[in-house]
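As a warm-up, study this chain.
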Amino acid sequence: MKYIRFFAFAVCIVMLAGCAGARSSDPAPETAGRTTEAQTQAAVPQTEETTLLPPLPADENNIDLTGEGQIITYARITEIAAAPADHAGKTIRMKGAFVRAETADGGSVCCCMVKDLGGCCMQGLNFVPDAAGEELLSGLQEGDKVIVEGVYEKSAAGYCLTDAKITAVKE
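Now compare it with the structure written out below.
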C-alpha cells in the first residue's frame, strides 16, 4: 500500500511539473445545441453530493475516488490506466466529466474523464453502462459531471468499467 501511495504521489508531482506552463487564457467555445439545465435535470436523476450514494465496502477490491481531491484522483486514474491488469476485477467509483469518443470502426465509447490540477491534462476510464445507464445517456451532454461505478474488466474494446451505474451530479 505504501508503494501505491508513493507511486501516486510521484505521478502527481511529475504531472504538475509537466503542465505548469500550459495554461490557456482562451475561453472554451460554446457548444451549439446544448440543452438547458432544466431539461437536463428533468431527463437525468441528479445528486448534489456523492455522500448520498451508499459507500463501497472498504477492502482491496474496491476503489472509491469520489471523496479524494483532484490531484489524487488524477494520479490514481493515471495509475489504473498505466497498469490495467493490476486493477482488473476491482470495483471502481469515480467522479468526472462525461465524454463520448468515436472509435476507429465508427462506433463510440463512453468515458469518465478527470483533469489534473493545472487543467491542461486529462485522464479517464472507459465504461459500458448498465441497462438503466443506457437510458440516462440520452439526457447527458458532453462535459456533464457524473459519478460512474463499475467493475474494471477487459472487454473486446480493452479495459473498461463494465455494467456501470451512472449518476449525474449537480455543480
